[in-house]
Design a protein that fits this description.
There is one protein chain. The protein is built from 13 helices and 13 strands. By secondary structure, it is of the alpha+beta class. The strands form two sheets. The protein has a seven-stranded mixed sheet. A six-stranded mixed sheet has the order 1-2-3-4-13-5.
């Protein structure tokens, strides 16, 4: 078992990803310990938002887009915030392992979510990630912008103090939305708790997760019930499942992890329209901040998607990069020429 230098979450999430990868994914490890998976990638979803919108507006877009969905090899995992890099393997050796054991079986090879000067990692982990990216570039990989990782420093005494730092318009809007909390019953259940083994619960949670997935702009990693079940049953991972009920009905849930003095937000499920009617996105955001502050944590890590609403709610962002290698020399040249068209933001509503 390798210690991962860049991990923000407990090893249980990567273990569950490898045991129960998302639907249509095939996951394993390279000899170095790096996780890898193959999955279909719609290339248009990796483009800058404006470019993507223009392509979507072209005639018969839904017909020709299938030709731009490629079977792609990835290094990393969709269950981790940053690419998990074995701490005990030299970055040059990691890059050589990627080129030797992962390149060539698909048209594209993408090393995803490399941390860049992250305030959530220590200097050694940041240097490890930067050296790995440099080693990949030395071997012909093209570096492109990754998705922005949202985070909040828990440097306030109360959530009201936190809200008070925002603009007057946002303060008024958020406080209005938080009135919905008065009619909600919120429970916090630790992963591994026998209550989470109730056979009626998993189908409810998964249905609400699918609601969020289906209304998202980008459909990439559809989790499986088996994956979620493994996470919920793991008492050692220090997970917390927050359940939101209204009038006895489950209308939302949020699975987070306490790790390295951070609260790491991983998955959500919402019932629509109830979640919107009760402003559950804003309510759960502020509840998570309250929980993190009450437990003496130093950061809330809020994930990659929905950067606009997260910025509105006060988040900061950490930059990530992807390193891309194309099997075809012409495609490699095109990647270098047009790498600026690729962007990290891929909004997923909630």
């Amino acid at each position: 078992m390798h210690e991962m230098a860049t991990a923000l979450e407990p090893p249980a999430l990567l273990d569950a990803f490898l045991a129960h990868p998302p639907q249509g994914f095939h996951a394993s490890r390279l000899p170095s310990g790096l996780p890898t998976f193959r999955a279909p990638l719609d290339l248009t979803t990796t483009l800058d938002e404006d470019v993507h919108a223009r392509l979507q507006a072209l005639p018969l877009a839904r017909h020709w887009r299938r030709w731009l969905t490629w079977d792609t090899r990835f290094i990393g995992a969709t269950s981790t915030e940053y690419a998990p890099l074995p701490a005990d393997v030299d970055p040059q050796a990691l890059a050589e392992d990627v080129l030797r054991h992962a390149a060539g079986d698909t048209r594209l090879l993408i090393v995803k979510d490399l941390a860049i000067d992250s305030p959530l990692l220590d200097a050694r982990a940041n240097a490890h990630s930067a050296a790995f990216l440099q080693a990949l570039e030395q071997r012909g990989f093209v570096s492109i912008e990754g998705m922005p990782l949202a985070w909040v420093a828990i440097d306030f005494d109360t959530v009201d103090t936190y809200i008070g730092r925002l603009s007057s318009g946002r303060r008024k809007d958020i406080r209005r939305k938080l009135r919905s909390r008065q009619v909600l019953d919120i429970q916090c259940v630790a992963t591994g708790d026998p209550a989470l083994a109730d056979p009626r619960l998993l189908p409810q949670l998964y249905a609400l997760y699918q609601n969020v997935f289906q209304q998202s702009q980008v459909h990439f990693d559809l989790l499986t019930p088996a994956y979620l079940q493994q996470l919920l049953g793991d008492a050692r991972s220090n997970g917390r499942l927050f359940l939101y009920h209204h009038d006895g009905q489950l209308i939302g849930w949020n699975l987070c992890y306490l790790h390295a003095n951070k609260l790491v937000d991983k998955y959500v499920g919402f019932a629509y329209p109830q979640a919107r009617e009760h402003n559950l996105y804003t309510v759960s955001w502020m509840y998570n901040l309250e929980y993190a502050q009450a437990h003496g944590l130093d950061h809330y890590v809020a994930g990659w998607t929905d950067s606009r609403i997260k910025a509105y709610l006060g988040a900061h962002f950490s930059t990530t990069r992807h390193a891309v290698h194309a099997r075809n020399p012409l495609l490699r040249a095109l990647l270098r020429r047009f790498s600026g068209l690729f962007a990290g933001e891929a909004d997923q509503g909630g």
